[in-house]
Amino acid sequence: MKLSILNQEDTVLVEKNIQERGYLFYESTYQEGDRIQLELDDAEQFVKVKIDDAMAESIIFISGKTWTFELPSQKNLKNAYPINAFAGEKHYISVSIPSEEEVYAYRNLAFNPVDQNKKEEAFPHASANVETRNEATFFARNAIDGILANEGHGYWPYQSWGINQQADAALRVYFGKKVEVDRFAIALRADFPHDSYWTQATLEFSDGSREVIALEKDADLQFFDMEKRTVDWVEIKELIKAEDESPFPALSQLEIYGRYVK
C-alpha cells in the first residue's frame, strides 16, 4: 500500500509505502483542497484506517485500487466532524490490513466514520434522496458515523440525517459486498420539542424483502431482530411522522448487525 497526502494541484506533500501495518505523520496545516490517498496493490480489499486522532478507527471495503478522503476544510463540511479533527500542524494517520477474524466478525456493518457524501469508493456507504439544505450536518453519512449524540441538532456532535420535511425520504446503506444481516438499531434524533419522530418505518432489502417496524418517542437506541438475509444494501423508507406540532423528524444513527459473506 502507499499512503499519501496531496494538495489540490495533485502535488504529493508526503507519502509512505506500507506493508501490513503502518502510519503517516504530516507536520503542517491542512489547506483547502488537500486530500488523503491510499493506493492498494490489488482492487477490492478490506483495510483498517484511522485518519485523525479525533476520529474512530474503522474497517472499510475499498472497491477499486485507490481510495481518497477529501479533507473537510470548508466550514460547511467541518461542522459535522469533531472540533479538533484535522486541525493544527501535526497529523497522524494509520492504516493496516485487518485479520479475517476482524473482517468477518459479527458487528455493526454500517459503521463508517470516514464515509463521504456522494462518494462510492469505500463501503459501507450511506446515500439518501434528500439532505436538508445540502448542509453537512444533515448528510446521510452522519447516520453511520457512530456518534450517538441525539439530544440536540446541528453542529457536531449532533449531526444527523435531515429530510427537509420530504414525504418520500429514504436512506440506503451499501456494503460493497454480500452480507448476512439479522439485527438493526435506530437512534432517532430526540431534541424534543424541536424534533418530531417517526412512529413507523420500512426496511427494504436488496433481495426484494421488506420489514415494517414500529418506533417510539425515545432517545435510546431501538433494537429490532429479524430473519437473517443475504443482501448488499438496506434502505430505510416510508417514514410515518407522529401527529405532533414539530415538522422535524430526523435520524441520528442506523446500526446494521451481521457478517460479511466469505
Describe this structure as you would to a colleague.
By secondary structure, the protein is mostly beta strands. The chain has two domains: 2-103, no CATH class; 107-260, Jelly Rolls. It has helices spanning 75-78, 100-103; strands spanning 2-6, 12-17, 21-26, 35-39, 45-50, 58-62, 66-70, 91-96, 107-108, 122-123, 125-128, 161-162, 171-188, 198-205, 210-214, 222-241, 250-260. The longest helix is centred in the first third of the chain and has 4 residues, at 75-78. The model has no long low-confidence stretch (mean pLDDT 97).
Could you name the key traits of this structure?
single chain; 262 residues; mainly beta; Jelly Rolls; eight-stranded antiparallel β-sheet; 2 helices; 17 strands; 3% helix; globular; Carbohydrate-binding protein; Galactose-bd-like_sf
